[in-house]
Amino acid sequence: GHYEIINVTVTGHYEIINVTVTGHYEIINVTVTGHYEIINVTVTGHYEIINVTVTGHYEIINVTVTGHYEIINVTVTGHYEIINVTVTGHYEIINVTVTGHYEIINVTVTGH
Predict the structure, then answer these.
(1) Does residue 36 belong to any structural domain of this protein?
(2) Which top-level group of life is the source organism from (predicted)?
(3) What is the number of domains present in the chain?
(4) Which end of the chain, N or C, is surrounded by fewer C-beta atoms within 10 Å?
């Protein structure tokens, strides 16, 4: 969306593969829930990303959240494995929470 993406909800009971959300101005309340696998989730906002929640009951692989100005309240929860979670914000990253009940591998948070 070239201006705003608001309340994007993706729910997959088995597999969610290659979910891409791109907003040129604002992404608000993005929720991705997968009961078995979430693979390659990419969220990109050129100005603001607010309240991004990714929940996977078994595996979350390659979750990338990029905001050119602000990322606020990013929550990633995986009950078994979270692999390669990357959060990049060029100005501010506020309240980033990553929770894994078994393994969290390669979590990178970068704020310029």
Answers:
(1) yes
(2) Eukaryota
(3) 1
(4) C
